[in-house]
Design brief:
Distance between the termini: 41 Å
Strand order of the largest sheet: 6-7-8-3-9-10
Helix content: 25-40%
Radius of gyration: 18 Å
Order of helices and strands: EEEHEEHEHHHEHEHEEHH
Strand content: 15-25%
Number of helices: 9
Largest sheet: 6 strands, mixed
Number of strands: 10
Shape: globular
């Protein structure tokens, strides 16, 4: 794929949104998944969350968008306090784009219709305006010529790029990515990561749950390593991935970066 050019991102009112998380707890019954998370993301910063499956990364991301309700703690996204019982969730979510592991496209709608349905229904945009914005975002992810196709006519990587374009049609101030390449064939992973890299370079605030260590090292401003619902280590990407200080971080990265060297008796 020829990488499309992404201009400086014209994000939502007020520019990129920072995130502050304080004392965040989340449990499902007796299973406490998040155990007092403290974390911040500056406006325009890219933070990658890494760690083993089940460490709470995806749950943390879903709490930021209030797809999950925390049991305790506070989350602020830009000017919104996400954990305030009286927060206008619809208004807050207009400023947040989220891309999931699965593409979640409507199979009966065309690519263009998938990208216009939310602006038309939520923002009440006229059809012509919504389609113009959708085509702009599809052009950014290199899929303008596929606007009339249905999702089942696209590869997995193309569908995920449509999902990114769909999120961008709302002009979000914050993008959340939950392992966006985990369901893709290896050949298509690079196309999606290239789009994310260009979004980062354009100044989009991003929180990315990922197992792509090379992407995290190259693109993230900071990396946060989570284990069993806690932040174990965080810092500049090159330091956390290249020279981790905590034994648990060292063990995780040894297994991820050098899987053939791992002794199964460890």
């Amino acid at each position: 794929m020829t990488e499309p050019e992404l201009a400086e991102h014209p994000s939502a009112e007020g520019g990129p949104a920072g995130v502050t998380i304080t004392g965040l707890h989340k449990a499902y019954g007796d299973n406490e998944v998040l155990k007092g998370i403290d974390m911040s993301v500056r406006p325009g910063e890219v933070v990658c969350l890494i760690g083993a499956s089940g460490s709470g990364k995806s749950t943390l991301l879903r709490c930021v968008n209030r797809l999950e309700d925390p049991n305790a703690g506070t989350i602020t996204v830009g000017s919104f306090e996400a954990t305030d019982p009286d927060v206008d969730l619809d208004a807050m979510r207009r400023h947040i784009g989220m891309v999931f592991q699965q593409f979640n496209l409507f199979p009966h709608l065309s690519v263009l219709e998938n990208c216009t349905i939310t602006p038309r229904r939520v923002l009440k945009q006229p059809k012509e305006d919504a389609e113009a914005e959708a085509m702009t975002q599809l052009r950014r992810v290199g899929l303008e010529e596929l606007a009339q196709r249905r999702p089942d006519q696209l590869s997995g990587g193309q569908q995920q790029r449509v999902a990114i374009a769909r999120a961008l049609t709302m002009r979000p101030a914050l993008m959340l990515f939950d392992e966006p390449t985990s369901a893709l064939d290896p050949e298509t992973v690079g196309d999606v990561l290239a789009i994310m890299r260009q979004l980062a370079e354009a100044g989009m605030t991003m929180i990315v749950v990922t197992h792509e260590m090379a992407f995290a090292r190259e693109v993230a401003d900071r990396v946060v390593f989570m284990d069993q619902g806690r932040v174990v280590e965080e810092g500049p990407a090159a330091e956390v991935i290249g020279d981790p200080q905590q034994p648990r971080t060292q063990d995780f990265l040894r297994r991820v970066l050098n899987p053939t060297d791992v002794d199964i008796r460890d």
